[in-house]
Amino acid sequence: MPRVAGQIDLSKNEAILDAAVDVLGERGVSASMEEIARRACVSKQTIYNHYGSKAELVQALCQRRVGEMTAMLETPEGIADPAQALAAFARVLLGKLLDARGAGFWRMAMMGAFEAPDIARALYEAGPRESRRRLADFLRLETEAGRLACPDPLEAAEFFAGMAIGSYQTAALLGVERPLTEPQIDRIAREASARFMRAYAA
Q1: Cα–Cα nearest to 65, from 24, 117, 6, 34
Q2: What pLDDT is recorded for position 79?
Q3: Tens of pLDDT along 49-70?
Q4: Residue 194 has what pLDDT?
Q5: What is the distance in angstroms between the CA of the first residue and the CA of the last residue of the chain?
Q6: Are 153 and 137 contacting, i.e. CB atoms less than 8 angstroms apart?
Q7: Number of H helices, E strands in the chain
Q8: How confident is the model at residue 2 (pLDDT cuts 50, 70, 90)?
């Protein structure tokens, strides 16, 4: 069956997104689509057929990242145990923040923000803003269910994310190494969740 215009194989899609993270992390937002296509072993036209523009490609990168970060918030297990879901969210958030590959991508994107404001906007809207919105939706549902009491879920989402990543975000964006072991990440995530649950107890 012929493929619908704009569709590509899932494996090619993942290869393009992986290549984009690497190339944009190495060269910034001014990196060429040709280089991304070469690294992904596809044609430049394949990328444009699927994404349309570099800004849309960046949005897809962020959507994949946010989907991985917020998956636990959308499962029955997460809804049944908000403390566990929040700890899982914080764990993934910290893990991705400290991952050299992802941190390099965000660092280079921020450096090129004034050069490419459309891409910077796409990054923010599909990345940090969307992840906070999904967390706020989770907190709103938990409040309606009587398990939490968040009068302003979006504000509470900002508080929780800030508590989880702290100054590690600044260090990562500046390229300053502040390594954490898996047990340390787990401890921070659980502590952030426990403190949040006490602060917003129903």
Answers
A1: 24
A2: 66
A3: 888 888 899 889 888 888 988 9
A4: 97
A5: 54
A6: yes
A7: 12, 0
A8: very low
Element spanning 128, H or E: helix 128-144
Q: Among residues 39, 24, 202, which one has the least CA distance to residue 115?
A: 24
What's the fold here for domain 54-199? Answer: Tetracycline Repressor; domain 2 (1.10.357)
* Cα of 136 vs its chain's centroid, Å: 15
Domain ranges of the chain: 54-199
> Contact, 168 vs 178, CB < 8 A?
yes
Containing 158, the helix (H) or strand (E) segment is helix 153-165
| CA–CA gap between residue 170 and residue 181 (Å, rounded) | 18
Q: How far apart are CA 106 and CA 82, in angstroms?
A: 29
Per-residue pLDDT tens for 133-175? 999 999 999 999 999 999 999 999 999 999 999 888 888 878 8
* pLDDT given for residue 182 in this prediction: 93
d(CA 106, CA 103): 5
